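User: Run a structure prediction on this.
Assistant: Running it now.
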Amino acid sequence: MSTHERANLAPRGAAARGAVVVEVAGQAGATLRADPSAGAIRSVGVIVPTYREALNIPLMIERVGAVRRALRGGGVTLSLVFMDDNSRDGSVEAVARAAASEGAGGSVGGGADGSGWARIVVRTTQRGLSPAVIDGLRSCDADAMIVMDADLSHPPEKIPEMIAALEAGAEFVIGSRYTPGGTTAGDWGLFRRLNSSVATLIARPLTRAKDPMAGYFGLRRETFERADALSPIGYKIGLELLVKCRVRRLAEVPIHFADRVHGQSKLSLKEQVRYLRHVRRLLTYKHPNLAALAQFGLVGASGMAVNMGTVLAAERLGAGTQWALRWGIGVSILSNFALNRRFTFGHARGGSVVTQLVGFVLTCLVGAVIQYVVTARALSWLAEGSPTPLAVPFGVAAGMAFNFLISRYVVFARGGSRV
């Protein structure tokens, strides 16, 4: 362990009793003062999801063990649980072997009796990082819970600072790469940095956290217990908890994010696609009306492209202009209906397709009339001689608003949420 890492192992009591300098969401450079109502933290559970991390487990136990001994001096107990997705790579044996190396520092056990301060739980159903973390949080009875990766990219030595932030009144604390003082390994390439920045930007409507993608975070038990139904997709369980626990007081503790010591990253293109699906689901949960309107608008824009493509294809197949235009309108309406039913109003997929289609077509026809009338009226309001296209946005906005409201509250009326 480096000198710098050892320096971070000072008991957290002094920091918790005074001021904890962290980044508070929406308050740059803010300081959390001790909050007596928050209550002291006397027990901490560290939850580490694993899959084929046998080589990293002994190093993790050694470093978390050092933190445990430092916290014990301040009257805080720490437990460590590896939630393993049936790796069959020697992870169970690695935990067992670590018992001997810990010696007087504490026993390590993985038995059914749950003995030892560190243990491993082998999961054989609902495998995946996020379900593993949720299972670990639900089974933990500590005052506070810390979640971190097994690849040693997250420094366990920062746990005391994260506990201090929670004691100072934060509901949720992130071990952050991007808050002032946070750093990442120097060999991150341009693509990796760009990928991280874009993913963070996409999450901005959900949280003001500087590092919402972090897999290193902590929260109090009562914060977790108020979470709405958790349904994460992919790896970003921290973002799910931030939103579903309705976190208002967020702190970010700066960390150095290191490259993994052993093994290979589990991140893939498939996981990135799943992240986009996850963000969409959370946006629908947190901002249901705005999310639905945005999706409705995107579907409408795609309908324009479908319309143009259909007209072009019909004309190339020999159809006259009038018939090509009719085909374009018809196909684009069907396309909009299918996409809205699948995505924008996915909760209504259990309804009658025929009834919904008829209602959607009638809504579009009325919306077209409204668009025409409002455009004509707007043209009369504009200065004489104004170009006709200047009036079009007024009509489009009115028609779209009508279509959206009738679609949302009549055609695809909500019968039950899937979020």
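Residues 3-286 form a domain with the Spore Coat Polysaccharide Biosynthesis Protein SpsA; Chain A fold (CATH 3.90.550.10).
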